[in-house]
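pinging the channel bc i need a second pair of eyes. not urgent but kinda urgent?? the chain im working w is below, pasted from the shared doc
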Amino acid sequence: MSDADSGELQELTYATDGTRVSFTVSEDLYPRDAVYGAAYLFVDRCFVYLSRPGDDQVEVRLKPKPDGAIQDLDVLAGEFANELLNQVIRIRVGESTAQIREYYMAKAFFADANQTSIDALLAELDQEELEEDPLEISVPWEEEG
C-alpha cells in the first residue's frame, strides 16, 4: 500500500525552469479548497496560475513578480508546500469542529428570551445605580450617613 492509498500526505514534488516553479497536486491528497487557499496567500508575492491537467488534479504555477523580492524558487516551492499543508489541516479541523460551531450558533440564535444576556445584566446594573442615586450626581467625597 502506498502513502497515497493510506491517506498520508507526501512530499510535494515540483519542477522549475529558472523563472517559475510548478506543481501538480492531487485532489485526493489536497482538497481543491486547500489549493485555492494556499494560492490566495501567494498572490501578493508572485503570479499564480492554476490549470487542470487531468481529473482530480490541479497544476499550480508560481512566477515571481518583477519587483525581485523572491530570489530562490526552491524556497518559494517549500513555502507553498508548507502553506498547502496548513490549509489542509485548517480544512480538516474545520470539518471536525463543524458540529460544535453549529451547536453554539443555534444556541445563540434560538436562546430563550428569559435567559440573562449581557444587555440584560447591564440594564440591571444601570437600574441599581439609578435607585441609589436617581440624578446620578453623587459626590464621591461626601460621606453617607
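so Strands lie at 14-16, 21-26, 46-51, 57-64. and The CA atoms of residues 26 and 57 lie 5 Å apart. — does that match what u expected or am i reading it wrong
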